[in-house]
Amino acid sequence: MKIALINSSLISTGSGRYTFSLYSALRERTEIDHIFLNYKDRKIEKIHNNYKQGISELVKLPIDFKYFFYFRTQKKIPIYDIYHITTQNLSFLKLKPKIVTCLDIIHLVYPDKYYYFLFSKYLYSGLKNAEFIITISKSTKKDLMKYFSIPEKRIEVIYPGIDHKKFHPNVNSQALIKKYNLSNQKIILHISSGTPRKNFLSIIKAFHILKNKYNLRNIKLIKAGKYQYQRDRKKSLELIKQLNLNKDIIILDYISDIDLPKFYNISDVFVFPSFYEGFGLPPLEAMACGCPVITSNVSSLPEFVSDAGIMVNPLNIDELANKIYEVLTNYKLRKKMIKDGLKRAKFFTWEKTAEKTLQIYNKVYNSYEDSKI
User: Fold this and answer.
1) Of 191, 195, 172, nearest in space to 113 by CA
2) Strands 31-38 and 43-48
3) HEC string of the chain?
4) Measured on CA atoms in the order 190, 196, 201, 203, is the torsion positive or negative?
5) Separation of alpha carbons 273 and 295, rounded Å
6) For residues 6 and 90, is the Cβ–Cβ distance under 8 A?
7) How far, in Å, are 113, 225, 279 from residue 229 at the CA level?
8) 151 in the Ramachandran plot: left (φ > 0), alpha (ψ -120 to 50) or beta?
9) What pLDDT, in 10s, does the model give residues 228-275?
């Protein structure tokens, strides 16, 4: 049985990290290739660690937007026994037999633009005719059954893992503290693309309450992660200026994979009050590094964080500020959250994810072969 993981996302993205990590865990267990659809260079490539092998190069057309390029790759992808498409956004590819990992259906449930809502009809069109769907949360599974009427027997929830060699406590982070002048500061961390559903503006407002109503001093808010849209970056900066918080909030558009666990380690609390998530990877990474987590009580987030973190109504800014204050000032609560978070994070490993995914490969392969008889 020869398997292709079909991916179009860089490792710096959530779906890219899922694919690269899953491939690393699976390649020791089965015959599998990581097929990367490289839109930038108009190439189809095999990726093995840092090594790339070109499979095919497509002619760059005058009008050749991203998804049209992906559509054109279909006849150039080599023949495999199983095609595992690792994002719902490529489910329209007509490959057989195919398994699709549905990370979320954000463009349908919580679109940033109406254009994305309309386009999602095409992007997600292959979900209904996939031989099998892997979802990364029970929440996403419910969404699939609700919006697409996909039978439950064709969907399996398989949680992603955490790289525990990378995300763990006691990572040496002194260089970061010195670089950003964070000595003797309480640090509130948020990592996201800054889109409206990530709810960063509410974090800024809650931070303002901490500085004024609760009179907390020597605290910094760090927002890390490149903004998906400049309009959202502009709104954040305007609110920060309006609330006179320029000296207290650090906006970092990019942090390296090496620095990411360091930021979790130096932070006193990680705040993630998102309105919708297919899977809450940053909160789990934070907990694996011994950083207490405050997140939303909606979507998939309670499913992963469970009682190891604090859940808040993402619409209630006063509640968010109050819970951050508790974590920053209550030593016993903080100590318990660190202990519970570390224990919870250990549940999620890529070894588990790989073993369960391999079971699906075998199930789909055997079923597909039987159907041809």
Assistant:
1) 195
2) antiparallel
3) CEEEEEECCCCCCHHHHHHHHHHHHHCCCCEEEEEEEECCCCEEEEEECCEEEEEEECCCCCCCCHHHHHHHCHHHCCCCCEEEECCHHHCCCCCCCEEEEECCCHHHHCCCCHHHHHHHHHHCCCCCCCCEEEECCHHHHHHHHHHHCCCHHHEEECCCCECCCCCCCCCCCHHHHHHCCCCCCEEEEEECCCCHHHCHHHHHHHHHHHHHCCCCCCEEEEEECCCCCHHHHHHHHHHHHHCCCCCCEEEECCCCCCCHHHHHHHCCEEEECCCCCCCCHHHHHHHHCCCCEEEECCCCHHHHHHHHCEEECCCCHHHHHHHHHHHHHCHHHHHHHHHHHHHHHCCCEHHHHHHHHHHHHHHHHHHHHHHCC
4) negative
5) 5
6) yes
7) 11, 12, 21
8) beta
9) 889 999 999 999 999 999 999 999 988 888 999 999 999 999 999 999
Instruction: To the nearest 10°, report the CA torsion of 312, 318, 322, 324.
Output: 70
Higher pLDDT, 369 or 193: 193
CA distance 77 to 70: 11
Non-local (6+) Cβ contacts of 258 within 8 A are none
Tokens of 242: 């309006």
Sequence-ordered list of residues with C-beta below 8 angstroms from that of 53, at least 6 positions apart, any chain? 45, 46, 47
First-to-last CA distance in the chain? 17
Q: What is the pTM of this model?
A: 0.90
Instruction: Scan for tokens 């398989």, then name that residue.
Output: 158
CA-angle at 30, arms to 28 and 35, nearest 5°: 95
Residues 255, 135, 39, 50: is their CA dihedral positive or negative?
A: positive
Angle at Cα 56 formed by Cα 53 and Cα 61, nearest 5°?
Answer: 130
β-bridge partners, 155: 133
| Both tokens assigned to 326 | 């508790």
The tens digit of pLDDT for each residue in 103-138 reads 999 888 887 777 778 888 888 999 999 999 999 999
Which tokens sit at 46?
A: 């095999």
CA triple 270-285-157, angle to 5 deg: 120
Place of tokens 């920060």: 240
